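User: Just a sanity check before I run the rest of the batch. Below are the structure tokens for the first item. I only need the designed sequence back.
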């Protein structure tokens, strides 16, 4: 009997691994929206710690080739910044940064505070993301 690895089982393992990592960070986003200042700060500290851990195990991907057409519209710029974010950061860090940015537009003041504080702290941690990539 052959012990070949089933490609589907590899995909299932990968998806479970991602789901486990995300299950440790996703609840923290809810706590960033808390009316309690203490709960928001605790969630921010935990999220940043988790993201530092994920990023420390990340291997940088090769950047995609640049398009030959020099004229780009705004949609292409957004796609380019998303690609840049994914090249230099782990999947969890990229997702979290996008989610933190979207959270700044929340109608809830406590959400905006929690997301803004966390995004500010993420931008200050050199190992997570450079401000050049964040502003791209």
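Assistant: Here's the designed sequence for the first item:
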């Amino acid at each position: 009997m052959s012990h070949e690895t089933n490609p589907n089982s590899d995909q299932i393992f990968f998806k479970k691994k991602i789901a486990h990592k995300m299950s440790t960070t996703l609840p923290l986003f809810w706590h960033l929206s808390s009316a309690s200042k203490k709960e928001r700060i605790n969630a921010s500290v935990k999220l940043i710690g988790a993201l530092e851990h994920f990023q420390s195990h990340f291997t940088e991907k090769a950047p995609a080739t640049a398009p030959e057409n020099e004229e780009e519209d705004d949609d292409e710029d957004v796609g380019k910044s998303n690609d840049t974010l994914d090249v230099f950061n782990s999947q969890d860090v990229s997702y979290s940064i996008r989610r933190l940015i979207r959270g700044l537009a929340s109608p809830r003041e406590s959400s905006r505070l929690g997301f803004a504080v966390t995004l500010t702290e993420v931008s200050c941690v050199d190992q997570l993301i450079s401000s050049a990539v964040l502003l791209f």
